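RETRY 2/3 - previous attempt timed out on the joint model. Re-submitting the same 521-residue input unchanged.
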Amino acid sequence: MAMLETHDLSAFYGDFQALFGITFTLEEGETVAIIGANGAGKSTFLKTVAGLLRRPPPAVRFDNRDIGALPAYDIVKLGIALVPEGRRLFSSLSVEENLLVGAYGRRIAGPWDLPAIYRLFPVLHERRHAASTALSGGQQQMVAIGRSLMSNPRVLLCDEISLGLAPIIIRDIYAALADIKQHGTSVVLVEQDLVHAMSVADRAYCFQEGRVSLTGRPRDLSRDAIHAAYFGM
Amino acid sequence: MLGWADTLLQGILLGGLYSLYATGLSVIFGIMRLVNLAHGDLIVLGAFLILAATSAGVPLVVACAVVVPLMFALGYGLQSLLLNRALGRNILPPLLITFGLSIIVQNGLLETFSADTRRLDVGSLQSASLPLGGGIAIGVMPLIGLAAAIAVILLLNALFYRTALGRAFRATSDDVEIAQLMGINNRSIYALTMGISLAVCALAAFFLGTRANFDPSIGPARLLYAFEAVIIGGLGSLWGTLAGGIVVGLAQAIGAHIDPEWQILSGHIAFLIVLVIRPRGLFPRAVD
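RETRY 2/3 succeeded.
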């Protein structure tokens, strides 16, 4: 039985349908990449799982429990945390306050607390009293990841964590991701950066126009198949 | 010269009262971006609730101690049962609801208490004053009012900047969607915010009622002073709101000193001048 699954999941923005019957599974400890072009519905999928968009109750199951009807602030307490696209730090809070607010919904004991986050990203300890807006893009991304980890999630949903960052910073972020996985956290990685996503993923889904166009293990997927699933050609 | 010193002193004390009016408004605007057009009427409602309790024989201080939590509960209920239903990207529906609420509260008070002017009686404290020498005296009640305004701001700042709940308030103010991802129920944060706002209104009502006469129609003018104090101070800063209240109070006192007809107008002129020179207020904190 998968830890997290969606069954025939659809999502709407008003009258516009963004997802068409997505069926998705995530096992304990697994890392799954979701790839696809802009507007394929990847971010919408993560938002829907995290509870930011309305969806039918049985469409999302976690630990054999229907969680589709729960609001975002209850989902995080069950152990699903989202690192949002664009980092979206709280601008009037310091770095440390951003991390601490991430623990607001913590209901689960686990490895992550303030010292653990500072061990993972030592630079954040140096800058802990800085305004979150004063950080570089890479440091902001570290805060965003740390903030989500503070709830001790069993599933970490990462939305475009390498977007707009220098290659050397991306390497650091992915090194941290490996650390996070070692603690047993399952990871769902939404990326446009195929190479990075495929290098860490156990399995991958390719989305195209709100539907799953391809799924499998990265080594089983040919370049041509991915190309076709990605662009729909 | 003496007259001016006295005028400035009275203006600052009056400003203390205005910042008490304004603090509740500043809090809800800062956290929810909600403008509560019934704010002034809710202060007057608080004054009438205290009056009703004292008329029933309850001592004034006890009445105040009861009405503050009562108004907190009223605010919590108002937000969770009514205003939360109108949440969304559009700020107009909540604004209209508070406008309607203002009319309901005013007419409800008129129906219940009539249009007679009332006053809260604090006995000998009413006229008690401390001589400062040189012929200037400082009223005890206005001084307590200013002290209360400062105490309320210290207390609220401690809540917002020193506690986990306070972080949740500020996070919700920054980005309500992401705050929910942190496990923060924005609706209950909003309900608490309105509760706090109305609890401060009840305290302001006490000082309103002991300082001057009140009747059901004076709410909108209190709202206007409070709003001017918030804007002058700059959005998102409670100390700014205190400063804003004092600016309005000082301007009114100075205007009245020149010519009593100028009292109200000079408050508004000070507001316009600040808007022209510092459109974001004296101590802006919020970025938007």
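The CA atoms of residues 94 and 131 of chain A lie 4 Å apart. Closing ticket.
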